[in-house]
Amino acid sequence: MKQKWWHLIPAFLLVLLVVLAGCGGNSSPASNNNSHVGTWEGGWVIPGLNQSGGLQITIAADGKLSGKITNDTDGNSAFINGTSNNTSFSFTYQYTGSPLSTVNGTLTKYNDELIGNFSNTVEGGLSYTGTFDANNPSAANANLLINGDTEVHGAINWIPWNNNPGVKPTSNWVSGFSDFSGYYTELSSTNCATHEYHVGISHRSRIILKSGKTYTIKIKIKSDNPGRLNLALANSFPPYENYTRRSIYTTTTATVYTHSFASTIDDPNAAFIITFGNTTADTDDAINPINNNGKKFYIDDVELTEQITPDSITPVGSPLLPDSGFDAGTWFGWNDVTKSATEFEFVTVPGIDGFSGQYLHFKSPDCGSEGWQVQLWPSALTTIALTSGKTYTVSFKARSSTTGILQAVITGPDSANYFSYTVNTSNTTQTYTCKFIFNGPNRTGEFVIFFGNIRNDNVDFYLDDVQVFAEDSI
Question: Does 324 share its domain with 451?
Fold first, then answer.
């Protein structure tokens, strides 16, 4: 039941991409006809150099532009000053001890996004050219993935990456399918190696993930032959933890998939990742390995939205797990590191805010380094009937003595992880929820909670009301 970590290795084009994500409303057009008045936040990235940074810009009614640019690689930051109107912008900045840089670009409005081209010239040095998009994620249901519908073909949406010995995937803008609208993206790789994380792509938008907010992923996918790929939101830097992840079994029929989760993470540099490496060497897919070599995957209408209202997911449907409140004490724990299950105990301790009756307490001096090394599951690994097209909601109440991390996972009989949901726990009791639609062939699954992580050593965890709900209709 080993849970893979992502190995994000962006290496593509030596291009500076500016991604401006609006966090303020636009006012009425000013006298200079500037309709982009407001404060915009986001980031930039140079994929070929594996560098990225943050950007905050305020455009005033008179066209003046100000803000701040930062570099995540070396920690440099500088103020920016310039001008902007409906069709172009220009600003300068200078890091301490570095030459002056000048950025010039053009602006075009496409739907609710700003797109354009720009050049970044360092005084007496190199000049980089590239493209940028801007959107306003403070608006209800705004897409946080720039150009998710791929209609601005030629704009750089995806950064191919691979972990040797995989081969970087090709990413092309194509059209012609009647079941896709306009342009869409075609992905393929001649050698998908032996692990699902060996080959994939990362969307180049810088995602500002907020704790306490609910997010929904939506994507249309089909492939020229049956295959499997994985969707995930993860952090862009070590240890590359998955905040949420799910597997998609693709077919020749274009299908729209959705996946919602309540974030417990604050991460201004989260990445949306799609991987489709082979699983021939993965222990969690040994019974039913997937070979994606040469297969073509088609994706379109990719959305990541922050649900402004409501901020929570309400579980509905039939509960599938027995003893969800631990009152019968029938759950089991396993620790691959200390080889002891005695650290899992069912207790009734007064004074634990938000808990009632009997609940689970867990603590270990050594939780290993990977999630699967410490696990909790219902009696005899109670099976869950996973029905293709049905919606499931995972919900549980948790708290910890200090900051901790755990994963709720649904695996299959071959230990393939169909779904995972990672949360950060604290000394405040919180109910965590995540909703997903299962799209694989009908099969049975098993629910497990992973505690394995060095951050969990000697942390007291309390769990209650752990349940998986299946909506009564598809």
Answer: yes
Residue 213 phi, psi (nearest 5): -100, 150
The CATH number covering residue 335 comes to 2.60.120.260
| pTM score, whole prediction | 0.57
The pLDDT tens digits for 214-224 are 788 889 999 99
The answer to whether the CB of 35 falls within 8 A of the CB of 84 is: no
Q: What is the DSSP letter of 255?
A: E
End-to-end CA gap in the chain = 28
Let me know whether 292 and 163 are in one domain. Answer: yes
Same domain, 209 and 352: no
454 three-class SS: helix
- Strands (E) located in 165-316: 170-175, 183-188, 199-203, 207-209, 214-223, 227-235, 242-250, 255-262, 267-275, 297-307
Residues 462 and 369 in one domain: yes
Pairing mode, strands 113-122 and 127-135: antiparallel
Buried b (16+ CB within 10 A) or exposed e, 427-447: eebbebbbbbbbbbeebebbb
Answer whether residue 147 is part of any domain: no
Domain that holds residue 222: 158-307
Task: Give the total number of structural domains in the chain.
Answer: 3
Tell me: the pLDDT tens digits for 311-360? 456 777 888 888 888 888 778 777 776 655 446 777 776 667 788 788 88
